[in-house]
């Protein structure tokens, strides 16, 4: 009899936990204004933020023209499935590829083009999602603020765009929360 109660209790715990995890999507669809190049910063748990729509169980983050989106939902760490799209005025989506940095080295041990999986033309002209990070955070007088960020641009411009993104994150830190 004790085994049946323990088993029943375990099943109830599993159902409660799985329901909690399904309540809030972890993965996201990122809709970026057509032609946008620059950094994207999503700031979580903002009282004045929006609650993203949900599409097929995924949050849909509609990035504004300035690239900074405040949402009234929690950030998530762990394995996530993200999809990135340019979206035009007719809500048509065009996928944007995430560029994985390879870290390859030549026979002398020197770093190769850190984007060794693309050619020179793509390095200079193709737009990718770059520098996707996990969940970052900073302290404010009202508590911890979480954010995530990434870059939309060419690999050639990646370092310059990354520096701009870091400055914008610093500016957000100084804003009253």
What does the model show?
It is built from three helices and ten strands. It is of the alpha/beta class. The protein has one domain. The strands form two sheets. The chain has a five-stranded mixed sheet, with no helix packed on it. Strands 2, 5, 8, 9 and 10 form a five-stranded mixed sheet that branches. The longest helix has 22 residues, at 2-23. The protein is globular and about 60 Å long. 18% of the residues are buried.
User: What Rg is obtained from the alpha carbons, in whole angstroms?
Assistant: 20 Å
- Number of DSSP E strands: 10
Spatially, the strands of the biggest sheet line up as 3-4-1-6-7
How many discrete domains?
A: 1
Span of the ends, CA to CA: 54 Å
Low-confidence stretches are: 5-10, 12-22
**Structural category:** alpha/beta
Portion in beta strands: 25-35%
Average pLDDT confidence is 82
Task: Give the ordered list of helices and strands.
Answer: HEEEEEEEHEEEH
- Envelope shape: globular
